[in-house]
Amino acid sequence: MVTTRAQGSGGSSSETKQKYTLKSEGGGTYKVAGGQTINVATAGVNAFVRLGSGAFVSGKLAEFRKRPKEAIILYEFDGCPFCRKVREACSLLDLDVLFYPCPKDGPNFRPKAKAMSGKGQFPFLVDPNTGKQMLESDAIINYLWNEYGDGQVPIQFKLGPLTTISIGVGLLARGGRGTSYRKSNLPKEPIEIWGYEASPFVKLAREVLTELELPHLYHSVARNSPKRPLLTEKWGSFQVPYIEDPNTGTAMFESSKIIEYLNDTYAVK
Question: Which of 92, 119, 202, 259 is least crowded, fewest Cβ atoms below 10 Å from its Cβ?
Fold first, then answer.
């Protein structure tokens, strides 16, 4: 297992520019690339159905009990409604997460998660800060809010089947993307990505990360996150998704360029 980094890390501007070559710049505004209108629209359905849950950090952030020293670990896949629910919670809690994608028929992390948990069930949480390992999305959300929040789980996560149904309806628009494995070459180190759950552009990039089973350290930067300025300092603008790939020394903005890069670099043709 890869050693996780401290919460909110990601390197200073000078460190980033020494290690990475920026292959695709961010313009600071959100524009849909040519031919991507339908993809972006369908990727945004979930945020619409969920009334923007995961777009903002909780307004109670200053009251939260503590910040984890290391990123929590989640075994999950993008097209799973229970997994989406936990990712929304992580955005509200401003938590960084090391994702080990577990798409259907994935040969690496799905079997590993099943061996660790004893069940073929997702999401599966491992918290290196406390040693806690957990299944069940509601239990994970309660744990995260008690450990790293204020103990008061927001209403959108306490509506029982209605929560899961609303997420599932939103995911239907993507036709199963982010669910099944595509053959790939695994990187030696996790790719780092900056984003937040409600962004349709970030979702498109995460679908490919999931399908290719690429581990990624996710720096959550929902609106009002105190980590947003850290990203702006790197290249002078804020835009997500943004990735840094320590395996190739590549840094990139723009979801369409990131998707092209991931497929060209890691997908087995």
Answer: 119
